[in-house]
Amino acid sequence: MINLQYKNYNTLLLSVVKRHWSSTMPYLNITKMFNIVLALLERRLGKVTVRSKPYFVKIEPTNKCNLRCKGCLHAADRAELNDNKELGQMDFSLFEKIINELEKYLVKVSLYSLGEPLIYPQIAEMIEYLTKRKIGSVISSNLNYLPEPLAANLVKNKLTHLIVSLDGPNSKIYNDYRVGGNFETVIKNIRLINSEKKIQNSKYPKLEIQMIRFKHTTENEIIEMKKFVESLKVDLFTLKDDVTPKYKVPTPIKKNCFWLYGNPSFKWDGTLQPCCNFYEHTENNFGNVATSPVSDIYNNEDYRNARDYFNNTGVKPEKKTKCHSCVFFKS
């Protein structure tokens, strides 16, 4: 029986722990566990300047994509982003710089953000780099692009967790959401990964199907989807709320944001953001690791002001950040 999980932003921390626990355990040690406990304690105590280090980060290999899904910047603003030279891919040496600074504390790295990570030419090398340093890896993909050699390398280099975006149990529903995608191609590639796992006698990557529940998604579609996923022999099925701002229902009270205590995001050009929820807003940029160490950025004025804001201290910040208009952790 497939394990169905439901994910929304009101219970997100518990959801994340349950979702990643089995594929995270092999990468824990005393140092990493102590750092995580310290980060959780500092969040609970409302620390503005922290001693803990990032332990579960997101790194964007590229923000280019092969699809134009509804509600995504790729569908809406590609021409503008391209004209402004905001489309690109991460230099591998910059990736190494981030990992080398944080590897002592990193448990897992998400190798995705706005773009499609599997079209990045060195994605297999990124996974290998992490695996050799005993750091887990997770990719979220539309899985419309997966040459057989790449599928073999994902398994060989021990990608820990592969999330496949599949928003319907048939091509008609799928094509309504994933513009430019092909339902049959995704199913073929899921089976290709399972075949490679069998050939290489590997339990990795853990395969997860993720379905976004839009406002117009019916319960019958969800039931049909769950039955279909059962036939694909994957490890997990996650139902995720659509969290684009126009559909987001704000939380009733201001909550302390956990992203600020251990989970920064790095864009392809080295820009550091405290979370991945406001990708398109430059005012959410807290620094750039191409020119500054992560440790210098992690307690800078932007980070301190953001943590202070969610801690309800009542102190007027010297400088406002995008966190002050967050709809995910405050009304």
What is this entry, summarized?
This protein has 331 residues and is of the alpha/beta class. It has twelve helices and ten strands.
What are the salient characteristics of this protein?
single chain; 331 residues; alpha/beta; ten-stranded mixed beta sheet
Characterise this structure:
- The protein is globular.
- It has 12 helices and 10 strands.
- The protein has a 10-stranded mixed β-sheet, with helices on both faces.
- The chain is an alpha/beta fold and 331 residues long.
Task: Summarize the helices and strands and which ones pair or pack.
Layout lengths: L2 E5 L4 H13 L5 H16 L10 E4 L13 H4 L1 H6 L8 H11 L5 E3 L12 H10 L3 E6 L6 H9 L4 E5 L5 H7 L5 H17 L6 E8 L5 H12 L5 E6 L23 E2 L4 E3 L13 E2 L5 H4 L3 H10 L21
Parallel strand pairs: 1-7, 2-3, 2-8, 3-4, 4-5, 5-6, 6-7
Antiparallel strand pairs: 8-9, 9-10
Helix pairs in contact: 7-9
Could you give a short account of the major beta sheet?
A: 10 strands, mixed
Oligomerization state: single chain
What is the overall number of helices?
A: 12
Strand order of the largest sheet: 1-7-6-5-4-3-2-8-9-10
- Measured by DSSP, the beta-strand proportion falls in 5-15%
| Arithmetic mean pLDDT | 85
